[in-house]
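Progress note, sequence design subtask.
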């Protein structure tokens, strides 16, 4: 036998049952992480460029925790929107800060929910950069101490995992050492290891009001043209003690995910970032694509490429679709 007509690939494509039998990639709600924007007070406000995404006040975070737990999600990923910003991003490592308070309330409402926190300064600095500035340049080594303080502060509030997203060199090691010093030796770090300087973060920066006031993030985030360098970034973060590595954005970087998985194994996370999410939602609204089909296809593609964990603003809807069997058809 040498192929057609003895071999017909269409035999397993004929019915949903046959397709399901030979399906290679599955998704579970426990593999989804739901990013949330938390503000101190006021009412729920929509993020204009991200249909379906809102900024939530502290008053409502217990409800969000209960929803995430009911849906069986793998966790929530918290981003804080402080009332005040300053040069040193001090709101990030304030024990009474918005994220710290959100962690306490969510853990009280749902002790078993994984509360993960983004560790970065950009939403807290007046200049919008991910670290402190010395003569207008992001000062790597001065920033490390502040990131470590932020992570410890999140840990003290009850965070289950800390996730540094700043892309300073050496930050995983600095955070690991500080956590260990404060008796958080068993707290895992999910490192945004291969984080690219991407145009797809646009809507997030509207949500977090975190666009750099001058310049851009190319001085610390990765060049989209590079993949060998991503492997070096990941290897360094693992050496420094990262427990979960992340590739970000997701869909434009499937090759990076695949190589990371082949080279390092898991746990590996992929972040479907704000711009990827917005493209699908807005193209759906415009009638150009079927939003739900496109969303599910994108998420499965991240899993197929090798991501064990997927971070998506659509985690709730996706978990409902999983339960309703939409992924099985
Ligand atoms: C903070 C941070 C950003 C995102 C996650 N953490 C913004 C940035 O680096 O500019 C982007 C997430 C998204 O676009 O959904 N450094």
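Output:
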């Amino acid at each position: 036998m040498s192929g057609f007509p003895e071999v017909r690939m269409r035999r397993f494509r004929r019915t949903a049952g046959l397709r399901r039998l030979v399906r290679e990639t599955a998704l579970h709600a426990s593999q989804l992480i739901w990013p949330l924007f938390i503000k101190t007070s006021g009412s729920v406000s929509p993020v204009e460029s991200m249909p379906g995404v809102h900024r939530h006040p502290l008053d409502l975070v217990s409800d969000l925790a209960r929803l995430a737990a009911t849906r069986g999600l793998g966790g929530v990923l918290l981003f804080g929107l402080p009332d005040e910003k300053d040069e040193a991003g001090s709101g990030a490592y304030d024990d009474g800060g918005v994220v710290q308070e959100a962690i306490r309330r969510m853990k009280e409402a749902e002790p078993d929910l994984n509360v993960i926190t983004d560790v970065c300064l950009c939403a807290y600095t007046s200049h919008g950069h991910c670290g402190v500035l010395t003569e207008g340049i992001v000062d790597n080594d001065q920033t490390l101490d502040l990131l470590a303080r932020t992570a410890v502060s999140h840990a003290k509030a009850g965070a289950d995992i800390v996730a540094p997203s700043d892309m300073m060199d050496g930050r995983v090691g600095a955070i690991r050492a500080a956590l260990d010093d404060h008796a958080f030796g068993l707290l895992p770090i999910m490192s945004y290891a291969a984080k690219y300087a991407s145009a797809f973060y646009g809507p997030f920066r509207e949500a977090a009001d975190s666009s750099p006031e001058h310049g851009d993030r190319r001085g610390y985030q990765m060049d989209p043209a590079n993949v060998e360098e991503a492997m070096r970034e990941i290897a360094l973060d693992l050496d420094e003690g990262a427990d979960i590595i992340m590739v970000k954005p997701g869909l434009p970087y499937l090759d990076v995910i695949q190589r990371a998985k082949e080279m390092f194994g898991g746990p590996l996370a992929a972040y479907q970032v704000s711009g990827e999410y917005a493209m699908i939602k807005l193209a759906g609204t415009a009638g150009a694509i079927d939003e739900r089909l496109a969303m599910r296809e994108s998420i499965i593609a991240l899993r197929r490429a090798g991501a064990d964990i997927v971070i998506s603003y659509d985690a709730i809807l996706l978990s409902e679709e999983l339960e309703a069997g939409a992924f099985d058809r």
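The mean pLDDT is 96. Work on this subtask will continue into the next period as scheduled.
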